[in-house]
Design brief:
With 130 residues, the protein is α+β, with helices and mostly antiparallel strands. The protein has one domain (4-121): Double Stranded RNA Binding Domain (2-Layer Sandwich), CATH 3.30.160. 30% of the residues lie in helices and 20% in strands. The chain contains four helices and five strands, in the order βββαβαβαα. The chain has helices at 30-34, 55-63, 85-105, 118-121; strands at 4-7, 10-12, 17-22, 40-46, 74-79. It has a three-stranded antiparallel β-sheet. A two-stranded antiparallel sheet has the order 1-2. Strand 1 and strand 2 form a beta hairpin. The relative contact order is 0.16.
Length: 130
């Protein structure tokens, strides 16, 4: 697989991208049942350790809701719009590129403070500590 060029100065190396193919789950009509080839593409990007990403870019990408990064920093994009694997792979690469660009262009939102737990506030015993 080739490296993915996001923008000038940011390229995702091929060893940080992984791809898997699955079957499209559809109805039970004859046209869908006859198409048993695994053509839906799942493209995963491991953000941890990517050489082109600084700490600010990494936080923007992992915090962007459309990317839905998991705890390990892996971003997953699924494309099954076309009938062939090659078209779905290109579609997934373009989708990943577009969403990462959107994430990097957005301002970094400040993190919301954690909700105070009942035990820390003292509500369990009935007397607030603050």
């Amino acid at each position: 697989m080739e490296p993915l060029v996001i923008r000038d100065g940011l390229t995702i190396p091929a060893n940080h991208l992984s791809v898997s193919f699955t079957r499209t789950l559809g109805g039970e009509d004859a046209a869908t049942a006859a198409r048993k080839i695994a053509s839906t593409v799942e493209l995963r990007f491991d953000t941890r350790g990517c050489p082109g990403l600084g700490p600010v870019e990494l936080r923007k990408i992992t915090a962007w809701r459309a990317l839905r990064a998991d705890r390990r920093g892996t971003v997953r994009v699924v494309c099954g719009d076309f009938r062939s694997r090659a078209r779905n792979l290109e579609g997934a690469r373009e989708l990943l590129k577009r969403v990462i660009n959107d994430a990097l262009d957005s301002p970094l939102e400040p993190e919301r403070p954690a909700r105070r737990k009942r035990g820390r506030v003292g509500l369990i015993k009935g007397t607030p500590t603050e």
